[in-house]
Amino acid sequence: MGSNNNKHILFFVVLLFFLFLGEAHKHVRIINNMQSNVTIHCKSKDNDLGVHVLSHDDSFRWKFNVNFWQTTLFFCGFNSQHGRGVYDIFKADRDQSRCLSLCLWEVQDNGVHGFKENATMDDIWFEWQNNK
Q: Torsions phi, psi of 31, nearest 5?
């Protein structure tokens, strides 16, 4: 009887490990492909990642874990000479399967483009909300 209890306890410990600690980090990288600068400000409900000015070919990146409830959301405000906008850059219900470990975004003259991991073509395109 004691052996069965130990097996159940071990099973639940392993289950809890995978539920709470076993999720791999997600990485987000935003690259400025425009010739001009772009200012970005990214944050979540709990984390303000600050304001960053990216020149041509510069990038900003961060990593995090998706929360237990799968509601993790990071959004970024973009301001460039071509336009501006605020967009959801990581949204757990959209990006868990899109971005196994890396979510790549490129800032271009016509907006912000998102790429599935290891893809060469964008699958999300956020046009600038307001042209300057």
A: -115, 135
Q: Which string of b and e fits 31-59 if b means at least 16 CB within 10 Å?
A: bbebeeebebebebeeeebeebebeeeee
d(CA 73, CA 67): 10
Residue 126 three-state SS: strand
Q: Is 102 exposed, middle or buried (0-12, 13-18, 19+ CB in 10 A)?
A: middle
Q: Report d(CA 16, CA 3) in Å as an integer.
A: 20
- Walk along the chain (132 residues) in steps of 10 and give the mean pLDDT of each run: 69 55 80 98 97 98 93 97 97 94 97 94 94 63
Q: Provide the residue ranges of all domains of the chain, joining segments of one domain with +.
A: 24-127
Contact present, 83 and 128 (Cβ < 8 Å): yes
* Helix locations, the chain, DSSP H: 2-16, 92-95
CATH number, domain 24-127, options 1.20.140.10, 2.40.30.170, 2.60.40.10, 3.30.300.30: 2.60.40.10
pTM of the model: 0.82
